[in-house]
Amino acid sequence: MQRRHFFALPGLALAAPAIARAQGFDRPFRLVVPFAPGGTSDILGRILAPELTRLLGQNVVVENRSGAAGNLGAELVARSAPDGQTLLLIDTGVLATAPALFTRLPFEPLRDLAPVNLLIYAPYILAVHPSVPAANAAEFVALARRAPNSINVAHSGVGAANHLTALMLTQAWGAELTQVPYRGGAAALAAVTGGEAQMIINGATATAPFVKDGRLRGIAVSGPRRLPDFPNLPTFAELGWPAQESGTWQGVLVQGATPAPIVARLDDAFRQALAVPDVARRMAELGAEVRAMGAAPFRQWLVGETEAWGRVVRANNIKLD
Q1: For the residues of 166-220, what is the DSSP string, one character each?
Q2: Cα(222)–Cα(203) distance, rounded to whole angstroms?
Q3: Per the CB 3.0–4.6 Å rule, which of 45, 70, 167, 215 could disulfide with 34?
Q4: CA-closest candidate to residue 289, choices 309, 273, 274
Q5: CB 250 within 8 A of CB 158
Q6: Could you tell me which residues are beta bridge partners of residue 290?
Q7: Radius of gyration, alpha carbons of the chain
């Protein structure tokens, strides 16, 4: 995918308050993260918030609203005023899996939420607790096959994309692992670093620091290439594993009836925030790639992801209601 980079025009920061007033931005923005603090969405939101505040001329406040597998925060935005001032920053896998997981959703993702833009892609890191007697992917798969259900896999909730990825991998390995849900990626990370669980598949943005400091041992990464900070970790593709493009795809959405000019203004602000050199540097350090594509392509992409993850959910007969 071709990447586009946008940079602030001279004087834009000074003009931002006037632009905000012209578009009705007359109070602080709520940037809703539907997960607990410490996960990828939360980290990304807190990196972007100061730059968005500068660009939009109003404070942008990150608001964690966890619960119902991410749907609580998503519903809050779906039911908000269509003025663009309540935004949803979410791992889009939550929206893509929800229609198949829930018989009755209190909102319709592609009707009640308007895509603004896809922001970043961060591959998954498959990591284990240092006590696990496996130094590489081959040794770990052999261990998993040899000792069924002896390995607890921590994930961020039943039906979450990292849970479904773990199921796809274990099925391909011919192994049986015990899947243990937690309330978000941060809680799952805490479980593995604390030795309560032995394995995790989680976004590189949140997981890389734990691998760097030795609290976790990296085994493999998803995505198209090895991570620069972990050149010795092979990709799923190199290993012949499925779910090669799995990972955390972070996007921003607003209430579904938000006028197109406001969506476009927000899209521009997020693009500019991601292009700020310090933000770009921090994204790269966390293993994330900017994947901005615009509102219409983002909607089309989300439709495709909903169909693809829906097939995985149905194949594993997973329901949350």
Answers
A1: HHHHHHHHT---EEEE-SSHHHHHHHHHTTS-SEEEEEHHHHHHHHHTTSSEEEE
A2: 9
A3: 70
A4: 274
A5: no
A6: 120
A7: 20
Distance of CA 241 to the CA centre of its chain: 21
Q: Cα separation of 202 and 248, whole Å?
A: 8
* pLDDT tens-digit series, residues 191-206: 999 999 999 999 998 8
Sequence ranges of the chain with CATH classification 3.40.190.10? 123-239
Q: How many CA atoms lie within 13 A of 304 on its CB side?
A: 6
CATH fold, domain 12-122+248-315, is D-Maltodextrin-Binding Protein; domain 2 (3.40.190)
The low-confidence residues of the chain, meaning pLDDT below 70, are 1-24
Strand partners, 248: 122
Token output for 88: 């949803």
**pTM over 0.90, yes/no:** no
Three-state DSSP class for residue 290: strand
- Reported as type and span, the H/E element at residue 267 is helix 260-275
What fold is seen in the domain 123-239? D-Maltodextrin-Binding Protein; domain 2 (3.40.190)
Contacts of 23 (CB under 8 A, 6+ apart): 84, 261, 262, 265
